[in-house]
Amino acid sequence: MGQNKIIIIGHKQPDTDSICSVIGYAELRNRAEPGKYIPARCGEVSPEAKFALETFGVEAPVYVASVEPTVSDIPLDTRSVRQDVPTVDVAGLMDTYDMRNMPITDGDETLVGLVSEYGLARAYVRKNPREQLSLIPMPLETLARILDARIVVPARETLGEGRVYTVIDALHVTLSRMTPNDIAIVGDNEPAQLALISAGVAALIIAEGAPAGERVIDAARSRGASVLATTLDAFSVGKMISLSLPASMIMETDIPTVRLEDSLEYAKGIVSNSKFRTACVVGEDRQHIGLVSRTTLMQEVQKSVILLDHNEYSQAVDGIEQADILEIIDHHRLGAISTLKPVRFLNDPVGSTSTIVANKFIEACVEPTPSTAGLLLSGVLSDTMVMKLSTTTSADIRAADYLAAIAGVDPAEYGPELIRKGMDLDALPKDELLTRDMKRYNLFGRSIMVSQVMTSSFEFAETHAAEIRAELDHLRTTMGVDCFFALFTNVFSNASDLFAAGDEACITKLDLRDQPVRLEGIMSRKKDFIPKFGQMFRQL
């Protein structure tokens, strides 16, 4: 999602108001800071909300499972080196950028290994002193650069794989062993230089700043031998050739990796247990993305979040305890969220959060786009049941009129159609039906879950009563709550049928043994049901 972005997100099991209000508020805030605010959700889009999104041609908010800090929230060192780059160049880059480890990639930027300071030291300190010095296939210009040499005779553009001889004494012994692919290092000894060329050497390296005479140059040209001249002594030339091995020959391949979506806690564990004290960040097919180290993981990182349509930990996105909450906008009862620093907190007892967002547009003298106005209207109509719930206020009616005019929609026609889209109850399994719109409350020491299902009649609840009760018992046990209530609210009859699962004593004291129980005038979970049953729980 990127750094410096602010996530605007609703509650778990998001309803239409939650989905539409985050889109609306993100649009408003992005007017001043384009692209900074990301509308998000932490649950599936309901059929009703999906209908609203499709009606006004808007994509659903991005899904965010958790706001726990991830690898994507920290700066990464994106440097890497191709596997054919000489080791001396890799070491030079590591020194220049003060890197203890360098990722190695192939031509497609796929991670293939890691060169570490420890690996470099082990590769060269453990090298067998009796081992024959050799050269891998390499462009002549690359070798000249490594040796800081001048190309006197460029007979071959690329040198093949061959051994390297330092010709100091016993020239005849060296000549007897040489092949056309070998290279000779020689000093200021023209007879030796000519003899080596005549023997068919692939390249002659004249060390210690010694001159390359005309006879040597002519002989090299006629025999197809390359000649390089360097100020390095013979020992240094050999050492630099040894360092010219490609990164692929000394890299290690058992490297720890993490992904951008991995949590920082997980990444810290991987890095701490790694001998490199580093992990490589990879994408699909091991594409190299960057490098994380203990230093980068020591930074204090938090995702910035604005919460809409709720203010309780039990309803918030996972990882909210580790997030930086900047603002809360809600229309429900006060919950238990606490913060370490002051935040903006707007809690207005209106029918929907979309009403609050619409009023913010009005206060800012900014008009929402027609599509956003249509979505905010959907949120208002959904949460007030087309202005029929007892939670409906004059502010909701004014907001709906304002938004309908911008969106070009008649609320009296659009509202019932929107509500009907969320009432296809037979198409859903009972567990999904009962958990699609549920909220957890803590009332006087008891953990309470309240699910609400909107219906157009009482027929469904009466027909499926046994199945609903059985599923409620199962959900109560699975979720570990004291009581699980389900309201089947008839939007056209101003009443709800109540089902409940709990211990026998609690159900008896609440007078809920015979279910469903018809509750006249109970339409709103937060304004009708919770206040009424909250008082009953106080007396248990």
Question: Which secondary structure elements does this structure contain, and how are they paired or packed?
Answer:
Layout: E1 6-9, H1 16-32, E2 37-41, H2 47-55, E3 62-63, E4 81-82, H3 87-96, E5 101-105, E6 111-116, H4 117-125, E7 134-135, E8 138-139, H5 140-146, E9 150-153, E10 158-159, E11 162-167, H6 171-177, E12 183-186, H7 190-198, E13 203-206, H8 214-223, E14 226-229, H9 234-242, E15 257-258, H10 264-272, E16 278-282, E17 288-293, H11 294-297, E18 304-308, E19 324-330, E20 344-347, H12 353-363, H13 370-383, H14 394-407, H15 411-421, H16 430-435, E21 438-443, E22 446-455, H17 459-463, H18 465-479, E23 483-490, E24 495-502, H19 504-509, E25 517-520, H20 525-538
Parallel strand pairs: 1-2, 1-18, 2-3, 4-5, 11-12, 12-13, 13-14, 15-16, 18-19, 19-20, 22-23
Antiparallel strand pairs: 5-6, 7-11, 8-10, 9-14, 16-17, 21-22, 23-24, 24-25
